[in-house]
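Fig. S4 source data, part A: sequence.
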Amino acid sequence: MDLTNSNTANNLAEAFGGESMANRKYLFFAEVTRHLGMHELSKLFRETAQQETEHAFAHFRLMHPELAVTDAASLTPEQKKAIAARCLELAIEGETYEYSVMYPGFAEQARTDRDGSAVVEFEKQQVESVEHAQTFRKAAHNFGLLTHIENHHAQQYSEALQALDGAAPATKAKTGNPATQKWICRQCSMIYDPITGDPDSGIAPGTPFEAIPDDWKCPICGAQKKLFVIYEEAVAA
């Protein structure tokens, strides 16, 4: 069953590109604000950039499950060599496309435009065939989780923007109820909501965070449970 051209595969490629671009963009913003002397804002951009990297890695693992190494010690030398070779193949493929197709095309378009501005064309990412339907079900689940994460990032940036205008920081609080208290991953900002649980990892809806087994890991970046902290939400005025 060839799912190379499925909508989810294309969405994974687009999401990987978007998260990768966000990482570099936020690192650029971090440098800009650092030069402006706004060190806390610079720190926020840099931390979020790292979280976007975790998101991109999660997408890429689903795009290329053959590269997802979970227990390197269990691999034979031949298997390790095959994984490294695949990484090199993909790297060569990307660089070859850039020098043989992408940049020559950009240069030709720039010459045609005559005003010196190059027309940026979208690079279509080719994803290898993935036959296991479970991979795509997990992708759908991850996209749902990332919706809340990106909303959290947007709120953080909105608060930082308001702070630049002199607005007082928003008041935040815990729910006080373990049955509804959300927790957030310090590594990628995945938010665990006990109301929905994490069914894909065997955590049923309605499971308080404290009741989750200690060996449970973040479904986005794989961080351990101990890296989660209580998520404090803004209190309505």
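Fig. S4 source data, part B ends here. The two ends are 53 Å apart (CA to CA).
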